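Worked example (supplementary).
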Amino acid sequence: MSLLSVSGLGIEFGGVRAVHDVSFSADPGEIVSVIGPNGAGKTTLFNMISGVYLPGSGSITLAGEDVTGMSPHRLAERGLSRTFQNLQIFQQMTVLENVIAGHHLHERGSVFADMLHLPSSRRRSKAAEVGAMALLERLGLARAALQEAGSLSYGTLKRLEIARALALKPKVLLLDEPAAGCNAVETEEIDRLIAEVAAEGVAVLLVEHDMKLVMRISSHIVVLDHGEKIAEGDPAAVSRDPRVVEAYLGAHAKEAAHADG
Amino acid sequence: MRLSTKSATLLVLALLIVATPFFFPSAYYYRVGALVFVNGIAVTGLVILTGYAGQISLGHAGFAGIGAYASALGPTHLSLPPSLSVLLGAALSALIAFLVGRPILRLKGYYLAVATLGFGILVSMVLANESGITGGPDGVQVAELGLRDLLASLGLKLKAPVFWYAFSGVVLLVGAWLALNLYDSPTGRALRALHGSEVAAKTVGVDVPRVTLQAFVISAVYASVAGSLLALQNRFVTPDIAGYMYSIELVTMAVFGGAGSVFGAIFGAGILTLLPQALTFLAEYEQLMLGLIMVLVMIFMREGLVPSALRLIRGRGA
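After joint prediction of all chains, the assembly is encoded as:
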């Protein structure tokens, strides 16, 4: 049985089918990429899996448990973590505090202990801070630890979101365009990081437009078009699939041709 | 050595509380000072709700009213000592905040503002209309707290205004300490996270309805204690204490001084309590000046007086 499996998932917005009858699954250590043209329903799919949207139909199973329609914080308790396409950073907090907040499930406790600054509260905070610092080191953000997050560059904030999502020690990690807006060096770092995280046994779900990145690291690719799954398979098979080429990769090729002309 | 924000805030507050009386021209200023501290206590609660968690309440005077009337009615109706009545008021405010907060904290922004406004008006109407219990719009006498007599019997004789200045100052310091502890704690981070991005807070596991309710209840207890202290030092209370004008004054103080910072909000409470007194020489232009100052601060120092000033100083320093 798979760690995460999605079956017949669909949602409508005002009668428009944004996602329809999508099924796939992910195992520990796998990198499953969801690709497709803009508006294909990739982010909507992520929002359903992470509990932000309530699916109209279908079901989601996480580690054998039906988690369809479960709120995001309960999914977080079950080991599902995500990043956002349009950044969702805690702007007024420092970089370090953002990642400590990512440890919320490990550091939360009695509000009375927190207000009275009791040793138990300090211990929880300290442990979360140590964990957060280690993650910042790992993502090359340690030097910015005490800066206000709102003052950082876009590419840095992308990495900060990944650090925050990893703070949860997730079993399933959803990354929504982690390399968007990043330069080549940053993209390569994110590439390496995703592979590392997967190697540790995390099931990674990836939405990404950078096809080179997707083809290089995915174990498995799901292709969406107009909200429906039109193909699925390993990178080599998907890139040869005529429907995929027509719906997506072909369009990219055309864009490239236009750019050249 | 660098002081943490917490130690610096508490140190500056304590110094101000101890040192300002040396500049008082008359004993009347102890009363003004105590009023500043009482407002500061209520506003510190709003820092937790508004500054940390990003939720607005235009009804917190309702909790001040509950605290004030608890300290007035506890001794007469339940034969409780006034000190226990204060605690009873705080517990009652917490319970009511818990029951009211559950449904209305699901609302956001101005919907929440209107709902809390309605709650405050409701409390003040109950206090004004249930005259059999509360004494109605004319108000009700409040018993002596008794702590001053206790201190006198121990050899520390204080005049009433001096005692209330000192006592309110100590309560304010304790309230500020608790709020500053919360800021840098797991719960405080969860509140500030949901202020920054509610959806991201949820995805890191923050139970948003639960922590916003906690913030609402805590801030209600602050308002309740402030209301009790005000009633006890005036020895008299009317339903005006729960009126919406006082709710709005409290929010204005917090935002004016800087809702995100404990010191800022207390500073705002100080300025807006003192300014009307300082502007009395302008006679009929007093309200006009007060309004103008508030508008200008909000236009040019949107984060509030203290955070904007600190940013300016740090910006220069770097």
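Two points are worth noting when inspecting this output. Residues 5-17+27-243 of chain B form one domain. The two ends of chain B are 18 Å apart (CA to CA).
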